[in-house]
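Appendix B, Record 12. Input sequence as logged:
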Amino acid sequence: MSGNWTAITESQFPWEREALQFVRDGFPPHDPYWAWSNFEFIADDGSINEVDLLVFTPHGFFLIEIKSHLGRLSGDAGTWLWTHEGRVKTFDNPLILANSKAKKLKSLLQRQGACRKLGAHSLPYIEPIVFCSAADLTLELAERAAFRVCVRDRGESDDPNRPGILKAIRRRDCPGMSVPRGRMIGPPSR
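Logged structural output:
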């Protein structure tokens, strides 16, 4: 295993462990790619926030929320519908919560000594991504509802329109993800 991936704790859920292993297996094992999985932090508002995966790459700083439901995912930008074996479950779009966690985490990190020494604007924007990790998930979210939602990559034969999580991490190839303003992530300028 590479030294650039740190599992703070192991997930208690087998489907989440399996999803993290999928990303880890395709994760570049070298600098400047870094990952931290399964940790919690207390935000300024006192809320306890769980992070499934935080990834730092030359292409972005990503907070990844893992959802592992089976079946078919449809819905709009506010409400998702998971349909499996004739049952429908309704959920709020998890991207909204992931975005809130990302903002809280950035605020917390900016107050840390190491970040303050680098300057007020040294920490890049932490971008939320939702990884729908079930292997056979049918993704039927359209337009804005599909923004920043990724599924499993299927290798070189993958459909170029399929929003794979590894493509998002390695190349920012994900619906709703634009090219970042300012400099790409790299060593601090001197």
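Strands lie at 5-7, 34-42, 48-57, 60-67, 72-75, 79-84, 87-92, 126-132, 138-139, 149-150.
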